Amino acid sequence: MTQNYFELFNLPEKFQINLEKLQENYRTIQKEIHPDRFAMATENEKIQSMIKSTQINDAYQALKSPIKRAKYILSLHKSLEKIPLPPDFLMQQMEWEEHLDTISENKNELNKFKFIINKEYEQYSLLLETQIDINQDWDEAAITIDKLHFVEKLLNKINISLN
């Protein structure tokens, strides 16, 4: 599929998108190309339907996830070579990981930490929106994506500890 994912779903090429519109357009497209609609078609048409359906699913999953969407936008505008994270953020990562280790058995402290890390996630998401949608600062956005990815993983670890 050579068509831009945003064009495919008739959405603006932005980090901040209307997720309801994405889902609505996804369902409309899937109704048209879903392999079940091609049960009586030729073998070639069935295969093409399966391929298109898989491509649509991949595009949908990429746009649905903030991190995957940001990476996709960056891939449209620059190569995705790794840019090192700033040392202060690397130190922050270690501190957060150590803090999680020390509170892993304390549900109350875990909930407080989760609140703090959720705020970090929101801040990085807003920063990414500015870097991509307004400033088109691809290098800074690449760094923010990596930060956001770390914060998302940390939230997952906190949620696992809470369960």
Description:
There is one protein chain. By secondary structure, the protein is mainly α. Helices cover 75% and strands 0% of the residues. It has two domains: 5-64, Helix Hairpins, CATH 1.10.287; 87-162, HscB, C-terminal domain (Monooxygenase), CATH 1.20.1280.20. The protein contains seven helices and no strands. The longest helix is centred in the C-terminal third of the chain and has 28 residues, at 107-134.
Helix content: over 70%
What is the CATH topology assignment of the largest domain? Monooxygenase
Number of domains: 2
Instruction: Tally the beta strands.
Output: 0
The first-level CATH class name of the largest domain: Mainly Alpha
Largest sheet: none
The CATH homologous superfamily of the largest domain is called HscB, C-terminal domain
| General form | globular
| Count of DSSP H/I helices | 7
- Based on the coordinates given, report the CATH architecture of the largest domain: Up-down Bundle
Spans where pLDDT lies below 50 across 5 or more residues = none
The radius of gyration over CA amounts to: 20 Å
Q: How would you spell out the order of helices and strands?
A: HHHHHHH
- What is the straight-line distance between the termini? 40 Å
Structural class, judged by helices and strands? mainly alpha
Mean pLDDT: 94
Strand composition percent: under 5%
